[in-house]
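To fix ideas, we reproduce below one chain and its tokenised fold.
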Amino acid sequence: VEPCASAYRAMIEGLARTVAGMAATSLRGVKYVLVSGRIAETVKRELEQLLPDLEFHLLPVLEGAKESKHAAQGYAIVGSGLGKGPFRKLVERMKIRDACGTVLDYVLHPRLKEAKQRLVQAYVESVKNPKLCR
């Protein structure tokens, strides 16, 4: 048995629940769902099996970025959208400008308390207008 199989399965099931919930409550309906990332092809196949009524597409590799990491391409998409580029509507839809806090805000483990405090301190010290979640 793969060491991370249960975590992977939980991730897929969580994604399926989230996508199904969003599709069920969308006022305009869902045309398709974009899947991206290093394991996108596998995730797409899994979601297609769990949600056969929805259409899934892989986010194409950015032109000229065939050698870069998927995360770097994601950052480029967000940066483009924040800068009023071609991904502007996607960034607006995702409400990225309204985001707050850090990646560890919802990680609850007593051993991470100091790490979370250091991350918040570094964030506050390095960002011009930090947005902490309250």
About this structure: The longest helix spans residues 5-25.
